[in-house]
Amino acid sequence: MIKKYEIARALLFDNTDDTLFAKTFNLPQGEVKFDDFANNNFEKLADVIGTNDFKSIVETAGFKTDGGFLNLYQGSDRLRLYYAQKGNTVYVFAFGEFQPQRYKVYLEGVWIL
């Protein structure tokens, strides 16, 4: 059951260098490393927190799928969504290569379970 949430939608990284892969993001809710979310596809979050909480996150944030065969969720700039979970807190990020060699990371929101 989700107790609190914050839709942040903040651009955390927009650059062409590879420092992203060793980056730690200092957020008001705590620190999150790139490695904490880079391999956690948002679609798998339902298996971790349960279908009802997953649906609630999708609804409160207004996330939509790409309409393709895999139904991947997209966030800001149509980048794929990823998540990090630290204790009872779930962070959702949009991340990807926006242009050749240009990476972006957005914090889409934070949910406390």
Polypeptide structure, described:
With 113 residues, the chain is of the alpha+beta class. The chain is 18% helix and 44% strand. It has three helices and nine strands. Strands 1, 2, 7, 8 and 9 form a five-stranded antiparallel β-sheet that branches. The protein has a two-stranded antiparallel sheet with strand order 3-4. A hairpin with a 2-residue loop joins strand 8 and strand 9 (102-112).
Give the % helix.
10-25%
Element-by-element helix/strand order: EEEEHHHEEEEE
Number of strands: 9
Largest sheet: 5 strands, antiparallel
Structural class: alpha+beta
* Subunit arrangement of the protein: single chain
**What is the global morphology?**
globular
- In percent terms, what proportion of residues is strand? 35-45%
Rounded mean pLDDT is 92
What are the low-pLDDT stretches, counting only 5+ consecutive residues below 50? none
Radius of gyration: 13 Å
Cα(first) to Cα(last) distance is: 6 Å
Number of helices: 3
